[in-house]
Design goal:
homodimer, alpha/beta, Rossmann fold, seven-stranded parallel β-sheet, two-stranded antiparallel ribbon, 14 helices, 9 strands, globular
Chain lengths: 335, 335
């Protein structure tokens, strides 16, 4: 006999790992049970502190996540890890050094690691990741860490839902890289320059400082990754006074991790004391709501339109008989 | 007495530049006239060949666009240029060398340059750019070139609506960069390694070739930039057999531009002969339709909901009394 969602939720909240894994699978696969899971768990969310860790391949960010996890574990906190990067050792792409470090945390009962399969669903992956963060939050993890590779829409979208986003850099990447990643730099709350025993670390720190001074921290929250196609003019600019700290780390030797954890804690304190936390949360929820409303209404509409009708409209668009806006008006008749 | 949209459209199609500029402004500012403009011009679209040129700052892509434009002009074609990159010399951020080259084309009647103000509206900017491309197409330009900086969601979104996307690289960027830009590499149809007189050009070409061999060209068209938040499962995979050519150019000396233009022409021929062109166009129009349907329905819904109701729902979400999916159900009652 299979367990009900309610039972699974209870067991997961009591610390049963296989139940937790089942709940996550329901949500990942977008089953009806998934909606029930989120409905049941939502009241229990809001406890965990979420940290996004993003950085290019080769910066050692997975190792840094392991080190940070170890640090929090030593302080008695529990940690959930979500790896979205397909090249991450958490998702099977490990190099030897990383695997060694991961072993230290993977047998630990206070750590839960889940990798997310990137199915090419852009907005979808971001939302699913957000929902999995919620599940981990609701079952009681103190920290939920999401690891993403620092490129592309997904990463930006996912990083933006975390409370604190840590950008991982490494020496030896030139100024050009920094320019390319300006978009990522903008979402970083804390920067870790990892592999700080490598030559060029001072240059990297200097280049990052220069770019931070150039940049501004005013953010239009309405344009957070989850709702990129939406354009309802409701953008609110949050004037963010946080000064992004740059922390040098050597994750393989567990060096600088205390300072990194402290920088994250400072950002957390800043968000809470300034009231930015609440403001951001409200705006994220608003965005999510708009996104879900759009998706649901489109799904409902498409159920009323048979594929022949849609094909005909597309044919007319392709042959230039019908412009997109008129096509919209025509299809909205099926509401 | 102000001119009617119909009159402006007629004048723009007859070659009157100030009318064209007015039409574009209507669309950019999302005025009711803008919708009329697109309605009137849509039947005349489909003539222009659209080329996206994307690359990091410092690769000399604006200079390359100027050189390419000069090349096409010498062959008797007209060229419309849309600059989305805020640091582009086309939008005022010129360095001396670029301005010199631009002078060669900016006085030319067969060239029309328009810069798009990035207002931080992610999906919005992509769609507006697409609409401006349509206007330039409909008034008769043979080529419409969109220049974007190769980072971020906008760029990917805009590049994906172009028939051919040219990625501009330059020597001296290490392997790390290539990894970061893997997402951009995926959308490139032609790669120009500009500044090919610089040391390291062979390494750059080799690194790019290696990355191209790693990558695959199967694309899920449904995830094209304009509709990132949508997830209707209608993704269609197009198996793209095009082999991305790498062309070495020195735009400042007008070297390699013939070869670049030829590579673009080959890609165009490939798209047309393989039938991919039609397939891509249909899918792009489908995506645009879904995106517009979502936006319109959300706008309609929000008009029925007063701000107090929305605020109450958000308050309940923030206080964990109402989960997102239940909030959606509640608000959909206002349809």
């Amino acid at each position: 006999m299979s367990m009900s969602v309610t039972e699974l939720v209870e067991k997961a909240r009591a610390g049963h790992r296989r139940s937790l894994a089942r709940l996550i699978s329901y949500v990942e696969n977008q089953t009806p049970e998934g909606a029930e899971v989120l409905h049941l768990l939502y009241p229990h969310t809001g406890h965990a502190y979420t940290v996004g860790v993003t950085g290019a391949p080769g910066t050692g960010k997975s190792c840094l996540v392991s080190s940070l996890t170890l640090h929090w574990r030593q302080q008695g906190y529990t940690v959930g890890i979500i790896a979205v990067d397909p090249s991450s050792p958490f998702t099977g792409g490990a190099v030897l050094g990383d695997r060694f470090r991961m072993r230290e945390i993977s047998g630990d009962d206070g750590v839960f690691i889940r990798s997310m399969a990137s199915r090419g669903q852009l907005g979808g992956l971001a939302r699913t990741t957000f929902d999995v963060m919620r599940i981990m939050d609701a079952v009681g993890f103190d920290f939920v860490v999401v690891e993403t590779v620092g490129a592309g829409q997904n990463e930006v979208a996912i990083a933006k839902v975390a409370n604190t986003t840590v950008l991982v850099e490494a020496p030896g990447l030139g100024d050009d890289i920094q320019a390319i990643k300006a978009g990522i730099l903008e979402i970083a709350d804390v920067i870790a320059v990892n592999k700080a025993d490598r030559p060029g670390v001072k240059n990297t720190v200097r280049a990052l400082k220069a770019m931070l001074e150039l940049g501004h921290r005013k953010r239009v929250i309405s344009h957070h990754g989850m709702i990129m196609s939406q354009d309802d003019g409701a953008g609110t600019i949050v004037d963010d006074m946080w000064m992004v700290p740059i922390v040098e780390t050597i994750a393989t030797e567990h060096k600088g991790i205390d300072a990194l954890a402290e920088a994250i804690a400072s950002h957390r304190a800043y968000l809470e004391e300034s009231g930015t936390q609440l403001q951001l949360e409200r705006m994220r929820l608003r965005e999510e709501l708009m996104d879900r409303l759009q998706t649901t209404m489109l799904k409902d509409l498409l159920q009323n339109i048979d594929s022949k009708t849609l094909d005909d409209v597309l044919d007319q668009m392709v042959s230039r008989q019908l412009d997109p806006e008129s096509a919209v008006m025509q299809l909205l008749e099926y509401r």
